[in-house]
Amino acid sequence: MSDYEIIIGLEIHVQLNTQSKMFSGDSNADALEPNVQVSPISLGHPGTLPMINKKAVEYAVLAGLALNSEIAKFTKFDRKHYFYPDLPKGYQTSQFDQPICVGGYLDVYDANKEIFRVNLERIHMEEDSAKNVHMSDATLVDFNRAGSPLVEIVTKPDIHDPKTARLFLQELQTLVRYIGISDADMEKGHMRADANISLRPVGDDALYPKIEVKNLNSFKAVEKALLYEINRQTKLWDKQEAPEVTETRGWDEAEQKTVRQRVKEEAADYRYFPEPDLPPLTLTDEYIDDLRRRMPELPQQRRERFRVEYFLSMYDASVLVNSSDVSNYYEHVISELQGWLYSLDSTEGSNEEIWDINGKKLCRLACNWITSEIFGLLSKSKQPFSALKVTAENLAELMTMVYENKINSSAAQTILKHMFEHGSDPSQVMEEQDLEQMQDEDALGKLCDEAIAMNPAVIEEIKSGKDRKLMFLVGQVMKATNGKANPQMVTDLLRDKIDLK
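Above: the chain sequence. Below: its structure as tokens.
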């Protein structure tokens, strides 16, 4: 057992997907060429005046509502001074003492699969800096990103292991995508994390100087950087050389280690003062309540609903809900399957009773085909889910064909592959390729008789108790029908003919 407790807090920058930047009309889209989405305002030219992006404020409030924060009725912007090549004005317009959101929390499943609450310190709005591009003989600056709208989400030091930090970030990414405020693509820089970590002796309540690892752009990098820091700081504590000052370090992916960059600045070093060119914001109850009413179903709510309503395990529900596009698609498939089921002539009772009997199997069947077969085809072809040609209606039809044993699993996979490539109708593919499952009991019975007659030794082994040999006979019948026979019907027929109980 370690002698030290791990203390981790995260600062996450989320780029808002507004059309324009935080304080100017420059495009906020990803650009292919450097320095093409700039203006005198985003380049910090003297005499220019910023204007607040109304949509960015709305998105910040939505983030606060989704993260259970208190929304400030009065908030303002401040100037945060520091001098880097990627900061054209020599200061960043941010929020200091009166952020737009205070407190809040996000619940995640921790490393032990238990709900763990990570409390938030604040959420504030700010503009992004430009991007340094390091060459072998020079550093170039791309100002396309300068002025892009950000929310910075700051957690309390509630996290105590790197895996939980990664899980928190993954849950946060899913959340901001659900509420539609950001693509949160870490590889593209839409979401970046700074990880603050310190150690302390077990039983000690003090907070010691933290190490801030800056600009981590993948979940894996966050986890690996924190693991490295735990090991490095443990050795320092063991040698009685624990960090004495707050320090900023960077993650060197090639060397798989953190590298010291500078001693961390404190608030006084930034010389904050209120932004004189921007008026304070006053948010009304009506404004906040209107945004609250527009809040979509959030991931945790949807997971729990999927688990109960669609008879899924928490794992399966989580896989589906990780993407709103996938979960919406799944619900569309289930809706189509329900419509098909209720349209059948049945003596089983009301729609509710019919669903109680068949729903569990259909829901799990659809989940398995989406998360296994469709995800597999997308991965193999390196396509995003948004490029999927298989409509929910067509997948539901394929599921009904499997459920009614019109086709076997092998034929269904063949049909799905054709649907994936061409967007085909499953019934049409089944007919064109003659894949409908053979269920003629008389014809299958004759094939079973032939298999029994041709394999007397196998029959003796089966009768002596070697039941697994029965599958050999099933295989012979399947071979004779080119895989089109209903395997369960063949198995039952063989058992009857061999007189197996």
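DSSP finds 15 helices and 17 strands in the chain.
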